[in-house]
Amino acid sequence: MSTRQYNYLIVGAGFAGSVAAERLASKGNKILLVEKRNHIAGNAFDEYDEHGILVHKYGPHIFHTNSKKVFEYLSQFTEWRKYEHRVLANLDGELYPIPINRTTINKLYNKNFTTEDEVKEYYESVREKRSPILNSEDIIVNQVGVDLYEKFFKYYTKKQWELDPSELSSSVCGRIPIRTNTDDRYFTDQYQFMPKDGYTKMFEKILAHPNIKILLNTDYKEIINKIEFDKIIYTGPIDSFFDYEFGKLPYRSLHFEWENHKTEFYQKVTSVNFVNSEKYTRITEHKYFSNQKSNTTTITKEYPQMEGEPFYPIPNDENSVLVTKYKSNVSKLNNVKFIGRLAEYKYYNMDQVIGRILSLY
Amino acid sequence: MSTRQYNYLIVGAGFAGSVAAERLASKGNKILLVEKRNHIAGNAFDEYDEHGILVHKYGPHIFHTNSKKVFEYLSQFTEWRKYEHRVLANLDGELYPIPINRTTINKLYNKNFTTEDEVKEYYESVREKRSPILNSEDIIVNQVGVDLYEKFFKYYTKKQWELDPSELSSSVCGRIPIRTNTDDRYFTDQYQFMPKDGYTKMFEKILAHPNIKILLNTDYKEIINKIEFDKIIYTGPIDSFFDYEFGKLPYRSLHFEWENHKTEFYQKVTSVNFVNSEKYTRITEHKYFSNQKSNTTTITKEYPQMEGEPFYPIPNDENSVLVTKYKSNVSKLNNVKFIGRLAEYKYYNMDQVIGRILSLY
Asked: Does residue A75 belong to any structural domain of this protein?
């Protein structure tokens, strides 16, 4: 092992950086974990707001996975509470289960389907075959036709991305299943839980290793030439690492408006998506995450926007050309590993990024 | 201004270190603030517990001051809620106002005093003149005689310090006033408030300056030879700085036992002091600090002990000899400033340490 001060400089204290720090520290490596913000946990950061409600500061984070390995890894650092995410779509003021399921179809088209086959037949009768599947419009219309596409996907996606689904990779809308049964859970993974005391507490435990030093409020560029280390793990935006050499990569950002209401519950489920009205995409009611009791409730309205902190890579052809250029830069570097949603310009769920780190370290 | 990486290395992110960091950063200095724990705010740290109650993790911290300057300084970083601290003494199962006031005397001795003069006369009739005043027994007995001393001070102080008041500097018990009126507030300062969203939130704002880099989980000794800086401000234990050269200074520590009760309130006031029973000194009910609503309530029982993290310097002759030795070491150092309760081995209230930093920087 090197005699340098740190074996690893890790940039970013979100899931990618924190799990890498823990894995490497537990093997005897000395880690300096540098974070631009004044807190750990990345966008999974939660805290109690001024009304005493535990809120997801950067939008709802729902932990779900089919990976026993990932679940057991995190279980070292938190207890869990059972949590199944449910979402309703607000369409013309009426509420429908999302993802689309049998209940959605029955209510919307005044049907009485009782079997999966009936619904499958219905989708078959309205779908419009597209081949090849090139984009997010194709992938939905190919399954359920134009009417359901327009009602539940087209405008919502436009609000979310400022792009028509036809301009977005099929992976964006393709992530959302189309159901024939009445399952109204947003996810169907085997493990669906919330960290019992919240994500931030779980991160505190992940990082509670004497070999991990945490430097907050600091851009790694301010210190990189002043400290000694062997290797870098970089989890920040890939374009920023290379000083935007080939131009800025666009990231979708979010603006949150917070409201506290003097009522026990504001809405029936955690998230209501507004699929054909409002400028915000969705309203999230945070109490559902923790099941806490309170006379008031805190909600957020999410307004997607281009400016602001990077949240989502925008997967389309133009951007993937740009990313490829940056990635060829990465391949020339020794001792720097790029991991995570921002560093790989790739949408990862939480469990995916954790799984990736666990297999690497 | 120096071209070194940091103008100041500040050790400890409690009030002394954090306020110094803010003052110096605002004048253009680059600061590295190093903290051994995984959080800022020192012993004033508060957070929501697993029951959603905001708790003072290292015991009750009551902000009170007569200094307009200190109050206005902190007001840049927090809003406030009015809070007046009230304490009751549990003596043989009965509750009495503390500090001792007219109500205490009337209830305890079955009197009906209605004026300050009557109570003053009473104290005069029971006091036992001591001169010189050498210790904490002297200062109380000299004011109110042996019975009140034994009832409210002797055993409580022994529990707190493992020393008889006669072995402790008069400053310890002398801090607590003896009243002739019916004022049952613990403090009478002009400004008595709680930071509206808690101490930790206030510290986050104090430290939210781009010139302040915060390094958590780190003993300054691990990094001091690896970074460049002009000056040190040290707020940790003075004996540890000098590697216990003259021996270890004793600090009084606390062990906290936490309980959550399924009731709206557990006791009538924030703190109940057990003056002649129990092994714990007091029970503190945290909800009173924030006035939050909840069906449950969290309390702590405080057990003073010698082992554990340093809380209070122990002011007696033996220790002050030792401190003087260490302080003569300090005077030989250039570019290191020792400030705060641990670095000066001196009891400071929060406002006192802030006032001291403000006058220095």
From this structure: yes
